Amino acid sequence: MHQQRLYTFIALLVLLVILGGLGAGGYFLYTKYFRAEAEPAETQVDETPEDREKRIHARIEEILAEMSPSDKAAAMMIVTPEQLTGADLVKEDSEQLAAALQTWPVAGLVFDEQNFSTEKGLRNLLSAIGQNSRYPLFLAFHEGGGSDSALSSFLQEPLMSSPSAIAATHNTEEAHYAGEQIGMYMKRVGFNLNLAPVLHPAKTAMEEACFGLDGEESAAMYLAFTEGMQTQRILSAAGVFPAPGTEDAGGDPDSNFIGETLEELENGAFLPFQTAIEAGTEIIIVSNVQAPRATGDNSPCSLSESMITGQLRGTLAFQGVVMTDRFDQGVIAGGYTADAAAVNAILAGADIILCPSDFLTAHRGIMEALQTGVLTEERLDRSLTRILRVLLELE
């Protein structure tokens, strides 16, 4: 009988412990979830625009103070992984790129489909680059829709219509949707800059990459597309300013030129860019074509102080980032050394040199220009301030 009472007592004690535990657990759940809903937490004060501006400005000043002249020279360029490392092909080799970025902190890297083989590998590559870079940088791809959809095909995403097909609908909502969808999968793998689509209108109806023939509609479609991308925190670079060229009379594709006078450009080709600038476009790509009747000489627009500083910065009042078109192609690669092209572009007013024909030579040219006084660190700092502001606003 005594033993039976002992067992009963132990059983009651265990039951009380279990009930106590259930009660404590229930109270925890109530306080964590139900009471939290009934009693909202203190409202978090959002960062004011003024505070955000102060924070970004302070961060820019901090980065510029950390950068050596060599760092600043490198940060004036966006290059391919191969141009940065000197390798024939960089394929998902984050260690190689990370090591190169420690020495050469470029403004960004532009990739194509040869640089990756799996989605996981691409995500890991871009993530590792971002984590190992000393400073914020652009991670760029060229994805415009239609036949210009290498990333979409690689990721097995639905194919977005080409800009020309979207323009044929005369519906900016279609453009916004396409930009948003492209932005979603670009963001998923880690890109932050799309070098497509183009802003300038087409010269012929056969140009798939343009939003039609009309400058006003082209600007409206382009802005809707880029607004869609921006919902996913993907930037676009508007190109090409002032317009694409045409082959010379001999059919030489490396001697493209624009035949319009400055007045004709102001009343035509400039107008879509004016609209985009007023809408807040942050990056504009300047064409490598010649416009002698507008600039007064045979310099490519990307090397022309008249076109960049005089027209784009002056007449159109653009305060954002000026990027050259690729310097490893066409008239620039064929007619200028990498160092001369880089220095002349900066002197003309460019902030970023896209894909110099030889990165190390271009870097050496900028350093020599700094040492001889042709360029100053203050001049580079002005460009780097614009570049860093755009990158920090993405964060």
Q: What's the count of strands?
A: 9
Into which percentage range does the β-strand content fall?
5-15%
The largest sheet is: 6 strands, parallel
Let me know the average pLDDT: 88
Considering DSSP H and I runs of 4 or more, what fraction of the residues is helical?
Answer: 40-55%
Oligomer: single chain
Please give the order of strands in the largest beta sheet. Answer: 5-4-3-2-1-9
State the separation between the terminal residues, measured CA to CA: 75 Å
* Rounded Rg: 27 Å
Could you characterize the architecture of this molecule?
The chain has helices at residues 2-38, 49-66, 69-74, 81-85, 94-103, 119-132, 150-155, 163-169, 172-189, 215-230, 262-266, 270-278, 292-295, 305-315, 330-335, 338-348, 359-372, 377-394; strands at residues 77-79, 108-110, 138-141, 193-194, 235-236, 238-241, 283-286, 321-324, 353-354. With 395 residues, it is α/β, with parallel strands linked by helices. The protein has a 6-stranded parallel sheet with strand order 5-4-3-2-1-9. A 3-stranded parallel sheet has the order 6-7-8. Strand 4 (193-194), helix 10 and strand 5 form a beta-alpha-beta unit. Helix 2 (49-66) packs across helix 18 (377-394), helix 5 packs parallel to helix 6 and helix 9 runs parallel beside helix 10 (215-230).
